[in-house]
């Protein structure tokens, strides 16, 4: 099978790191900034960055509803950190009204934005990750955690007792940033899931 075409939402955040990680994991990685570009991909990655800014831009660029609709139709997706926040169905501490982070609803989870950030802004930890051998070096930067998971959601990793990596069918999310560590196993897991 030819390489799956994976878009990286390129409005703000660490787009370049995901493009590199996806390419190394065997995907045909392209940027997505417009609805026509969204239509042309088999899957989408939402990078780490700032979920409120990305939400604002999604609305400005008329991408918010098209993206919600594709996720409803089963678009495979992976979000890291801010991307996890956006893929959630519910966001706690979403930000100031009018400039808040907007849920896209790819995952039946409730996330708390900046959850770890209130205790310690950023930290790194080696954590077990379901389906991967050994541990994953997880870098958390003003990261969210998951406060509620729906029945169909699988928890893949935890930190400080909270789910920090989840999967619901074709949609994955991590509260940390595998794209910045050089370890491509999480991106591989996602890209390989697209080939099945
Ligand atoms: N705190 C950021 C947000 O709310 C996420 C941080 C990150 O992606 N590293 O979007």
TrEMBL record:
Assembly notes: In the presence of PdxS, forms a dodecamer of heterodimers. Only shows activity in the heterodimer.
Residue positions of the active site: 81 (nucleophile), 177 (charge relay system), 179 (charge relay system)
PANTHER family in the cross-refs: PYRIDOXAL 5'-PHOSPHATE SYNTHASE SUBUNIT SNO, PYRIDOXAL 5'-PHOSPHATE SYNTHASE SUBUNIT SNO1-RELATED
Gene Ontology MF term list: glutaminase activity; pyridoxal 5'-phosphate synthase (glutamine hydrolysing) activity
Pathway the protein acts in: Cofactor biosynthesis; pyridoxal 5'-phosphate biosynthesis
Organism phylogeny: Bacteria, Bacillati, Actinomycetota, Actinomycetes, Mycobacteriales
Catalytic activity: aldehydo-D-ribose 5-phosphate + D-glyceraldehyde 3-phosphate + L-glutamine = pyridoxal 5'-phosphate + L-glutamate + phosphate + 3 H2O + H(+); L-glutamine + H2O = L-glutamate + NH4(+)
Official protein name in the record: Pyridoxal 5'-phosphate synthase subunit PdxT
Superkingdom of the organism of origin: Bacteria
Binding site residues for L-glutamine: 49-51, 113, 141-142
Enzyme Commission number(s) of this protein: 4.3.3.6, 3.5.1.2
Function: Catalyzes the hydrolysis of glutamine to glutamate and ammonia as part of the biosynthesis of pyridoxal 5'-phosphate. The resulting ammonia molecule is channeled to the active site of PdxS.
NCBIfam families in the cross-refs: PLP_synth_Pdx2
Keyword hit for Hydrolase: yes
Keywords: Glutamine amidotransferase, Hydrolase, Lyase, Pyridoxal phosphate
GO terms under biological process: L-glutamine catabolic process; pyridoxal phosphate biosynthetic process; pyridoxine metabolic process
Family: Belongs to the glutaminase PdxT/SNO family.
Pfam families (UniProt xref): SNO
């Amino acid at each position: 099978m030819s390489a799956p075409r994976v878009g990286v939402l390129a409005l703000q955040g660490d787009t370049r790191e995901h493009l590199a990680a996806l390419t190394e994991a065997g995907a045909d990685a392209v940027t997505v900034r417009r609805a026509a570009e969204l239509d042309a991909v088999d899957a989408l990655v939402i990078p780490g960055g700032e979920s409120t800014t990305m939400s604002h831009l999604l609305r400005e660029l008329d991408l918010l509803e098209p993206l919600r609709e594709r996720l409803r139709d089963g678009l495979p997706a992976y979000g890291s950190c801010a991307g996890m926040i956006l893929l959630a169905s519910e966001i706690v501490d979403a930000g100031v009204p009018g400039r808040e982070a907007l849920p896209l609803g790819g995952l039946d989870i409730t996330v708390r934005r900046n959850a770890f950030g209130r205790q310690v802004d950023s930290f790194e930890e080696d954590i077990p990750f379901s389906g991967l051998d050994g541990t994953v070096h997880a870098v958390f930067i003003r990261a969210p955690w998951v406060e509620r998971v729906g029945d169909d959601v699988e928890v893949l990793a935890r930190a400080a007792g909270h789910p920090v990596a989840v999967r619901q069918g074709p949609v994955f999310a991590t509260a940390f940033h595998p794209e910045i560590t050089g370890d491509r196993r999480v991106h591989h897991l996602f890209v390989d899931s697209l080939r099945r």
